[in-house]
Write a structure and sequence with these properties.
The protein is an alpha/beta fold. It has four helices and eight strands, in the order βββαβαβααβββ. It has an eight-stranded mixed beta sheet with strand order 3-1-2-4-5-6-7-8. Helix 1 packs parallel to helix 2. The longest helix has 13 residues, at 95-107.
Length: 187
């Protein structure tokens, strides 16, 4: 199966509408994007990048089912959070539910960042993951591109893990002077 454009078509457990299948959640982090933010790690990735920092997230099996509404309330309960980061696994395999979550936290003034192994070009392709465009429209700071070990960036100040990855700033107004360098991009 080509992870670029194929939906996972294995006999996988269904995630109920309005829910996310997570491998983890942190209510407060200062190392997963600008400012203080919640971090949502989704379960499931087809890429299996060598030296992935989170190989336990590759399986699409049900891990922790969480209602989007409940997770939004949990994120918004921390007054220190200025944003939320989606990571994984691959967030875009759960794009519709993450778009719903992003809309809720953005309505409360938070910014939304995501790490994806897809490129923006792949996500914008009509054969891309279901709901990809919907989620892209909600993101303020996507970082795209697969992790490639031979291009690894070994700097704690870099927003990317390998030099092929790109930081895109879709909405600078929502991000308080991010200490990140990237290219501005518009949908």
């Amino acid at each position: 199966m080509n992870p670029k454009f194929s939906q996972p078509s294995l006999d996988l457990p269904q995630i109920p509408v309005g829910h996310l299948n997570l491998i983890g959640y942190v209510n407060e982090s200062e190392v997963n994007g600008p400012g203080c933010r919640a971090v949502v790690w989704v379960q499931g990735c087809l890429r299996h990048c060598p030296h992935c920092f989170n190989p336990a997230s590759w399986s699409f099996g049900i891990n922790q089912l969480v209602a989007v509404e409940s997770l939004a309330c949990q994120i918004l309960s921390n007054p220190r959070n200025t944003g939320v980061t989606f990571s994984g696994g691959e967030p875009f395999w759960q794009a519709p539910a993450l778009a719903q979550l992003a809309r809720q936290v953005k309505a409360a003034g938070l910014n939304v960042m995501a790490f994806t192994g897809f490129t923006l070009e792949e996500l914008r392709d009509p054969c891309g993951p279901a709901g990809a465009i919907e989620l892209l429209q909600e993101l303020d700071l996507p970082i795209d591109g697969p992790y490639i070990e031979s291009l690894a960036v070994h700097s704690p100040n870099s927003p990317v893990s390998s030099s092929n990855q790109r930081l895109h700033i879709f909405n600078l107004v929502r991000v308080d002077s991010p200490p990140l360098c990237g290219e501005e991009d518009k949908l």
